[in-house]
Amino acid sequence: MALRNFHPRLAGLALAGFALATPSCILASAAGLAVVTTQEFVDHATTIIMEHPTQRVWESTVDVFHDQTSGRVTLDEANRTVQINSRGTEFTAMVETLDVNRCKLIVGARRYAVYQRELAEKMAVRIKHRIELVTE
Description:
Helices cover 45% and strands 28% of the residues. It has helices at 8-21, 26-32, 39-44, 54-68, 117-135; strands at residues 46-50, 73-76, 81-86, 89-99, 102-111, 114-115. Strands 1, 2, 3, 4, 5 and 6 form a six-stranded antiparallel β-sheet that branches. The longest helix has 19 residues, at 117-135.
């Protein structure tokens, strides 16, 4: 099988199978199958406090991310984190509940392993506009 035909999910399954045989790799393989956010991500990301229910912000964020790529969208529903690659830039967004109708939207962007705050801000504005359209 040619490497270009190798599907990422198969790679994850192969890694997970190997991890079962090698205990030290279990955490590494689990981290590879989910969206991972770090303190570095939060430090370089754009944060907006939204006066809307968390679920509405989360759904709008996922919708905008789907609109921005024809490729794979990685979702972590439990942690409300989504990730895409669009035009060579990796975008990650996270929605955290603060109160009943208040949440925090965190959006980060990296191109060539360098954080791009301007691109993150543009994506956050798109999400904010989508939420405003939904609530009107």
